[in-house]
Structure formats: C-alpha cells, structure tokens
Amino acid sequence: MRRGIKVFTVAVGIAKLEFYNNLRKAADVAEDGATIAFPSGFVHLPKIDAEFLQQLCAEQLITRRDRNGFPIREWQKMRERNEALDCYVYARAAASAAGLDRFEERHWRELERQLGLAPPPDTPLRTESLVSPDATPRGGIAVSGTPPGARRAGRRVIKSRWLSS
What is the pTM of this model? Predict the structure, then answer.
C-alpha cells in the first residue's frame, strides 16, 4: 500500500485485445431472425450513439519492427478521443479484481436471485439453496456462513499474503 492507496497494475493491452476479440463474436441466429444464443464474452451494444462507438474502436493493434528487426506489437490511437475504451478497460480490470472471472453459473444465479431478477425461461429452476440460510450478503454477493470460531473439517490450507501487503 502506497500512501494509504492500494495501487493495481492493469494490463491494458490484454484487456483491449480481449475486448476487440469479443467484438468479433456473432450471436447464433435462427432462420426466422430470432437470437438463439450468445457466445461467452459477446458484447451487447444496445442504443449507443456513433461517438461512443467511435471511442470504443479508437485504437488499433499494429506490429512494427524495432532497430534490431524484431516485431513489436503496440496499440496506436486512430482518434483523439478514446474515453469509452479506457472506461471498458478499467471496468474489466475492476471486475477481474472482484473475482467475476471465477464466477460459476451458480454464483450468477444467486446474484440474480438477490437482485430479484427472474432466471431465463429456458433454464430449469434449482430448488436447493446455493448458500446457507445464515449467509450475509456483502456487495451483492453471498458469503457462505460459517459461524465464527467454528472449525471446518479437513486439511488446513495456509495462504501466502505476499502479494496482498
């Protein structure tokens, strides 16, 4: 922690590459034009204006050669304004830091339940609870409720705090 602020490094190049690859994904559409399914990572852009879209696509990945002839890939701005792309990159980094990359389907279902959203009609409803009744919601995500001081049976796992200090 530096001066009371926890600083994170963001791999902006990787996040931009992931975003542009996700923009290339197409939804599965039936013959009648109805959408069947969206692939994982599909980017939904409903009701956006042209300026926002131009800001999202304001950079391109180019390959240039260094003085020794080795290829170097770098992001080059094609437009002056790219705030929408920067916002996506930092939102993606925050989501990753919050653990959304590791969410399983059951986590998303529980989050939908907490928010009062109905599950999609094509998925079966689960009858068992995904968390214990004494779970306490923190930031919209349920935390399994193990009473303080209770020991869990099984092997003890020691985790390093080297990166968290």
Answer: 0.61
77: tokens are: 């701005």
Each residue's pLDDT tens digit, 70-90 = 999 999 999 999 999 999 999
| d(C-alpha 27, C-alpha 42), whole Å | 7
Domain ranges of the chain: 12-103
Q: How far apart are CA 17 and CA 60, in angstroms?
A: 9
User: What is the C-alpha to C-alpha distance for residues 56 and 72, in angstroms, rounded to an integer?
Assistant: 23
Q: Rounded to an integer, what distance in angstroms lies between the CA atom of residue 110 and that of residue 124?
A: 14
Query: Residue 60: which of 16, 90, 26, 22 has the closest Cα?
Result: 16
Q: Dihedral (C-alpha) 85, 112, 139, 1: value to the nearest 10 degrees? A: -40
CA dist 21 to 18, 31, 42, 71, Å? 5, 25, 9, 21
